Amino acid sequence: MEKKILITGGAGFIGSHVVRLFVTKNPNYTIINLDTLTYAGNLENLKDIEHCTNYKFVKANILDAEALSKTFKEYQITDVIHLAAESHVDRSIHSPLDFVYTNIVGTVNLLNTAKQYWGSEQNHLFYHVSTDEVYGSLGETGFFTETTPYDPRSPYSASKASSDHFVRAYHETYNIPTVISNCSNNYGPNHFPEKLIPLFINNIIERKPLPVYGDGKYTRDWLYVKDHAIAIDLIFHKGKKGDTYNIGGFNEWKNIDLVKLLCKLMDKKLGRDEGESEQLITYVKDRPGHDRRYAIDATKLNKELGWQPSVSFEEGLSATIDWYLDNTDWLKNVTSGDYQQYYTSMYLNR
Ligand code: NAD
Ligand code: TYD
Questions:
Q1: Residue 350 above 50 pLDDT?
Q2: Is 133 annotated in the active site?
């Protein structure tokens, strides 16, 4: 079937990989990328596919119900993959309302538009892309499964949890065909350099301090972004409507161990002395309400749909560093504002 898929947030980090995969893998689908281009959205991320005839870009905000309605009508949207969001925990601590507006109100706007255009037709899908952070924080052991109770602890995760609840509520109340996936931390090319891995790659290149929050023993489960895009493609086509799928890398790292590995790999690639970049590690005050550990159990996705990560962490991290070293212009362009100074100083000065 020819589908006309609205992908929101397609100019961002994960969205750009999802758009590329869908445009190139499914030439009979039309992909409409709707993005308002915040600091995190960048059309440079999609330069290589912008000429494709099955790709369209609409610059619009998901808070603008009229623009959503116009887009649904003009392109006769059959499906939605919703990624547009404010995505950085530190920003959410500073400006929680931005997260309420985009992540909650924006999602409900989009659900309302889908409800208005699709009515009770079931041959559509509203796919909501979410995070494992909705489940809260783990101790030393255990994993998040699809039935783990929600326990969000940051304004970011609270806003994503709320949007997940609205998607489920629209499925139950209005019979909108939906699916949700909750993924662990992504890394890879085109990641805005305010998150741990791209920020530290940028700082190592520039020999700037590497601000490690608290004791550095916080743990995250890292997944290469292209494996996330593959999982989204699989769930979009084969997932059960109304269901939730966890996506994770089976790849836990304590921040400090990850940062030391990054320093080692980058010293080699940059031809620096071994141990040089580690000197840049600077312990700073902790993030308030910092979740100690995330770890995803992706057994359901593996058993039901046969997905598993295809890229090892060593390969993925090496490819990511190479991408940033080959794309220093991209890095310069996106870091030309004063955001980095500002967010780093939030922790250095407390
Ligand atoms: P990102 O910050 O890199 O990109 C977000 C995109 O959304 C940008 O292109 C931005 O311009 C756009 N956007 C923001 N507000 C908008 C609005 N009001 N209207 C229209 N467009 C808007 O985010 P990301 O890291 O690519 O994350 C994408 C999605 O995946 C988010 O929903 C996030 O919660 C989820 N997620 C992210 C991760 C991760 O590790 N990055 C992990 C799991 C889930
Ligand atoms: P981040 O990339 O912001 O993702 P999230 O908070 O959504 O997991 O942070 C990943 C981990 O790295 C988290 O434990 C916070 C920590 N961190 C630092 O220690 N220093 C930093 O400068 C940043 C951005 C994050």
A1: no
A2: yes
The ligand 1 site (C-beta within 6 Å) comprises 8-9, 11-15, 35-38, 40-41, 61-63, 83-87, 102, 106, 129-131, 160, 183, 185-186, 192
In the chain, count H helices and then E strands: 13, 12
Domain ranges for the chain:
4-186+222-247, 193-220+254-288+313-344
Q: Is the pTM of this model over 0.70?
A: yes
Q: Please name the fold of domain 4-186+222-247.
A: Rossmann fold (3.40.50)
Q: Is 343 a catalytic residue?
A: no
Ligand 2, from 213, 320, 347: best to mutate by most atoms within 8 Å of Cβ?
A: 213
Place of tokens 């890095």: 331
Lowest-confidence pick of 104-108, 246-250, 259-263, 336-340: 336-340
Give 40-76 pLDDT, tens digit per residue. 999 999 999 999 999 999 999 999 999 999 999 999 9
Q: Whose CA is nearest to atom 20 of ligand 2?
A: 212
Query: 10 CA to middle of ligand 1, Å?
Result: 8
Place of tokens 């909650």: 104
Is residue 266 a contact partner of residue 323, using CB atoms and an 8 Å limit?
no
Residue 223, H or E segment: strand 219-224
Specify the fold of 193-220+254-288+313-344: UDP-galactose 4-epimerase; domain 1 (3.90.25)
